[in-house]
Amino acid sequence: MGALDGFYTTLSRARATFGEGVPATGEEFDGSARLREMEAAVKAAAPDDRWQGSAADAYAAKNEKHAATYGRLADLDKRMGAEVTNSAAVVAAGRHSLDSLSNWVSDMDTSIPRDQSGDRMRLILAAKGIGQINDVIQQSTDDMDAIARRIEDIRKQYDEIAGKEEGAQALDHPLGNPPPVDPLEEIKRKYQVDEDPDGALDWEPGWPWNHLTSPKHVTATEARILDSLAPWELQDLNQTKEAAEVESKVSFPPQNGANDTADNHTDAFRHAYWNALMTQRFGEQWTRDFAEAHERLPGNPATAEAMDLYNNEVGRNIAMANPDATPAELADLVEQAVNRGDTVVVAPNSDGEKLAWSNTVPEGEAGTTSKSTVPGQAPNPAGAGPGGVYDPGQPGGYGTSAGGY
């Protein structure tokens, strides 16, 4: 048995305590972004001037309390994710220290003579190496213990919030106060526009371009916006629509037949990507005005309307946050948003009356919107004309699956 065998045996056992593979970081445990969205949605549901009095004040106070709860949960999720990342860093540091120690002992071994005096030196080297292994293990243990204490504190705060919410809910309904606001229900309530007062019509561009296209059924406001566009702008607008239609079927292929493109992930991607492309080409304000006008058809189902308007906004926000992104990069970002649950689809098993986050419904299992409608608010047009110099090019070209970008 060699003088260093004991060291290498101890090293192997120590290395095994740190496991194999890349240690998981805290991103998958950090749901703070979604919780912040829910906090914002609840805050947006605060009573406005149309509802006043003691009931409104009580509801506003309860609404503020629930928003604060989402904020606290977001903070805790952020902290929990950070502690998981810290634990991954401890594992990585421990492995690195052991690897460095192994290399050092190996280098020292090669420099020691192969005789009796060298054997004595190797025994000293082995003892020193084992001592340093113990130091690494002790340091890692201390660090992990500190992380465990902080995680336990976070857990207690989670439990505290849960206990307060249960107690609050037990009191809420006997007192007659409204229940906590469901962010998805709030999206359905908020993301509605009224019917176009001038109705709808079959629109086509002026001569001679009308000979090249078929009439499109649009709202009167939508038609006026289209009439204000130059022929090349109409071409760009049509290409963004075609690109969104094609790319949506590539990123989220219809699961229940070729025509299964409504109320589901394909639909969510199409609207978000279409608005992202339009925002790059025509600007955010113009795109918002046009997208809202597009939804003002008479009898537009409420669930589908809210889904489209909300996903439109997601797409515009992605484009504004990534002004230099190529259309292919925008498509990737929108696909990530749908997979992450930033968009909404029609919830299954809800008779088409409810929305669901897109990451909570498997592809192919979204519901079908009901035909029911709810009153909407008149849009507040920005009055902005088309902006930007971005030319999407021709579908079928280089770039995304839809091409031309």
From TrEMBL:
Stretches assigned to the DUF6973 domain? 232-341
- This protein's name: Uncharacterized protein
Please give the residue ranges the record annotates as the region Disordered.
350-405
What species is this protein from? Answer: Mycolicibacterium wolinskyi
Show the ranges annotated as biased composition (Gly residues): 384-405
Domain ESX-1 secretion-associated protein EspA/EspE-like: where? Answer: 18-99
Entry's InterPro entries?
DUF6973, ESX-1_EspA/EspE-like
Pfam families documented for this protein: DUF6973 (PF22322), EspA_EspE (PF18879)
Which portions of the chain have biased composition (kind: Polar residues)? 357-374
